[in-house]
Amino acid sequence: MESNVTMLLNADELILSALKEDISSEDVSTNAVMPQPKLGVVSLIAKQDGIICGLGVFKRVFELLDEKASVDLYFKDGDEVKNTNLIATVTGDIRALLSGERTALNYLQRMSGIATYTHEMAALFEGTKTKLLDTRKTTPNMRIFEKYAVKVGGGCNHRYNLSDGVLLKDNHIGAAGSVTKAVTMAKEYAPFVRKIEVECETLEMVAEAADAGADIIMLDNMDIPTMKKAIEIIDGRAQTECSGNVTKENAANLADIGVDFVSSGALTHSAPILDLSLKNLHPIFDTKVGAV
């Protein structure tokens, strides 16, 4: 996954799109109560415990609305925050603080929720060889942020998009005609540096994928006894990935099976947000001239 710096270099267009979604012509409420620029400050407060993530994106929202805005951060991505912690203060044109509040919080709450959920699930695999992976089950136009949040939470990224790796699923196999044909065609087409992963639903498919030379075999929606048999059939000829309805509630059952990877769409499609709030907005006063 891309670093935080790279993410931010690619994020402006997405953030601006989100701001345009929220401000199609003007912010009527803000313009009604704040017709002229005025310097102000607001506090970012945690309302529950969790892992904070997305502070750079949060900050960038206000910078895009007010180039003079400044954000003082008291935590960094990946830190644990507690209910009532002061996470940051934002200083800038009050109109920008008001207009950017929802968009900035939407990003930060979503990303922090994913990081928190991932952190809790990743802890279940500590001390094992199994790595926790995300999937492409992400919110449209949010993938770069959501996959970054998985990394911050202690998980690993599966392929970023369809250009990033070969994963032959049931419909690819159906289109090719068989597991063997699909793997053979992928080996002929894909660059040799690309690993080839095959999704298998039965032990027969597992054996065929291993014999065909798949690099990774996904054990899709198998029960634990079947997965153990699959690992025996593979016998080290390919890496193994367990997938299918993996959640925080059942992931612990998979820790001792011996697969190399466990992938979970729940990391990005089912993580609840982390409750955060912007509070105590007020003008900054100069004692001589009043509000700046």
Q: Which descriptor suits the 3D outline?
A: elongated
Instruction: Classify the secondary structure makeup into a structural class.
Output: alpha/beta
How do the strands of the widest beta sheet line up side by side?
Answer: 6-11-10-9-8-7
* Span of the ends, CA to CA: 43 Å
CATH homologous superfamily title of the largest domain: Aldolase class I
Gyration radius (Cα, Å) is 23 Å
Helical content, roughly?
25-40%
Largest sheet: 6 strands, parallel
Structure description:
By secondary structure, this protein is of the alpha/beta class. The chain folds into two domains: 4-120 and 273-291, Aldehyde Oxidoreductase, domain 3 (Alpha-Beta Complex); 122-269, TIM Barrel, CATH 3.20.20.70. 40% of the residues lie in helices and 21% in strands. The chain is built from eleven helices and 14 strands. The protein has helices spanning 4-9, 12-22, 28-33, 55-65, 94-122, 143-152, 170-176, 179-189, 203-212, 224-234, 266-269; strands spanning 39-46, 50-51, 70-73, 80-81, 86-93, 131-133, 166-168, 196-200, 216-220, 239-243, 261-263, 276-283, 285-286, 290-291. The strands form four sheets. It has a six-stranded parallel sheet. Helix 4 (55-65) packs antiparallel against helix 5. The longest helix has 29 residues, at 94-122. It is elongated.
